[in-house]
Amino acid sequence: MKKILVTGGLGFIGSHTVVELQNSGFDVVIIDDLSNTTIDVLANITDITGKKPDFHKIDLRIKADVKQFFDNNKVDGIIHFAAFKAVGESVEKPLEYYENNIGSLVYLLQEMRDRKLDNFIFSSSCTVYGQADELPITENAPVKQAESTYGNTKQIGEEIIKESCNAYELKAIALRYFNPIGAHDSIKIGELPLGIPQNLIPFVTQTAAGIREQLSVFGDDYPTPDGTAIRDYIHVVDLAKAHIAALKRLLENKNKQNFEFFNVGTGTGSSVLEVINAFKKATGKSLNYKIVGRRAGDITAAYADTTIANKELNWKTEKTLEEALLSAWKWQEKQ
Ligand code: UD1
């Protein structure tokens, strides 16, 4: 059985990916420092799959601890989620973001190089495209100057991996996520935002639950059909499955280059108002919302052209926006 290390495996996307890995017959070892999740997630994963993943509480910024982990564990592949991800905070704390998001990445790659380990999957983001000139966004769209430190850590991360693949003959795939939402069908795992949610869907579900009084829709003067900004919201389970597909591509040596990157989205863009309507359709809940000004740094529209990912990864999304929103709501109700 192949053993896969999942860093950040108790986080939102990480936990869903661990479940899909176990369901696909992989042995999983998780590293997480619990900085943005809780240990309960481990038991909840075990509840879903019937198999407790091996777990190590390690802070990947501590090089000696990373080294010690690899002294004691041999793995066939690594899926690296562990990173900070708050856009606004990243601009206020750039050094913390570079230390965590870049430092940890370098340490992992060094251990891979030194021990001749291979097969690395990296969590990247569609934020690398900025406001693309053409929609939908293909992998051929240029990477634009990052708008935030967070975005820059993803761009720099991809470059570090690409150069390492060339120098040390490693194989890696970066998955450029669009907007992951929703929760596992079992409603045992989902997104756990700390404090006031910055992302749209947790804010929507908390407003529907009465935790937040009102949803602010950031801008209705964008050049889109209803004036609100458009994103590509992908069910987190579909996103998790893309990691299994990418991992298998590397394990089976089906990759065409040492370093590849793919867009992971649904291919469909939805405006903020369309999300509010879809939420009502899915759950029967009307949201209290008001239109306010644009949020600084937001782009007008981003949605994926998934042609290349569908073909090369032999993967496609299966769940609808309404299914994703319903699962997010059930998860909220459970909290
Ligand atoms: C954000 C990040 C992106 C990151 C992603 C991770 C920014 C500028 N971008 O994407 O880099 O990879 O999260 O999940 O922060 N909205 C509202 N009201 C709200 C919250 C959001 O109207 O209370 C709108 C936003 O203006 C946007 C859409 O909903 O149009 C989605 O917002 P969000 O969930 O924060 O995701 P992104 O901004 O696309």
TrEMBL record:
Membrane-crossing residue ranges in chain numbering: none
Entry GO MF terms: UDP-glucose 4-epimerase activity
Keywords: Carbohydrate metabolism, Isomerase, NAD
Its EC number(s): 5.1.3.2
Catalysed conversion reaction: UDP-alpha-D-glucose = UDP-alpha-D-galactose
Entry keyword Isomerase: yes
Broad EC category: isomerase
CDD domains, A to Z: UDP_G4E_1_SDR_e
Statement: the UniProt record of this protein carries the keyword Isomerase: yes
The protein's required cofactors: NAD(+)
Annotated pathway: Carbohydrate metabolism; galactose metabolism
GO biological process: galactose metabolic process
Domain of life: Bacteria
One Pfam family here: GDP_Man_Dehyd
GO cellular component annotations of the record: cytosol
Ranges for domain NAD(P)-binding: 5-324
Family, as annotated: Belongs to the NAD(P)-dependent epimerase/dehydratase family.
Subunit note: Homodimer.
NCBIfam families recorded: galE (TIGR01179)
Name of the protein this chain belongs to: UDP-glucose 4-epimerase
Species name: Tenacibaculum adriaticum
